[in-house]
Amino acid sequence: MTERQLQECVRQLCRLLGCLYWHAHDSRHSPAGFPDCVIVTKDRRIIFSELKSATGKLTPPQVQWLLWLREGGAETHVWRPAQWLDGTIERAIKGA
Questions:
Q1: Contact criterion met (CB below 8 Å) for 58 and 33
Q2: In this structure, are residues 41 and 19 in contact, taking their beta carbons and an 8 Å threshold?
Q3: CATH of the domain at 46
Q4: Most exposed: 20, 60, 68, 78, by fewest CB within 10 Å?
Q5: Three state DSSP letters for the chain
């Protein structure tokens, strides 16, 4: 599963669950490292998630964004295809 395929799976899941989903269509105009997805769940949790292929590496700006968001109290994740397949992503979005 590619990162793009994973992104589409997460987007469809959010739609199915009634969540708001945001992803920059052209990240060249976004701050370096800003997480791939921002999700607002039906219970109003805000999730910032970086999506990676099975072997994809986080860049230093991605690490900094996720760290600072987490330290500020935000829910952050790095999701890979394995987390899609084992249900981790769905449980995180549902709040389970």
A1: no
A2: yes
A3: 3.40.1350.10
A4: 60
A5: CCHHHHHHHHHHHHHHHCCEEEECCCHHHCCCCCCCEEEECCCCCEEEEEECCCCCCCCHHHHHHHHHHHHCCCEEEEECHHHHHCCHHHHHHHCC
| Structure-block tokens of residue 31 | 């701050």
Q: What is the pLDDT of residue 38?
A: 97
Collapse the DSSP code of 41 into the 3-class scheme (helix H, G, I; strand E, B; otherwise coil) and give the result: coil
Which residue matches tokens 């952050």? 76
Instruction: Return the number of other C-beta atoms located less than 10 Å from residue 92's C-beta.
Output: 18
Per the structure, the complete domain to which residue 52 belongs is given by 3-94
State pTM to two decimals. 0.91
Model confidence pLDDT, tens digit, residues 51-62 = 999 999 999 999
Mean pLDDT on 39-52 = 96
- The structure tokens listed for 25 are 């269509």
* Number of structural domains in the chain: 1
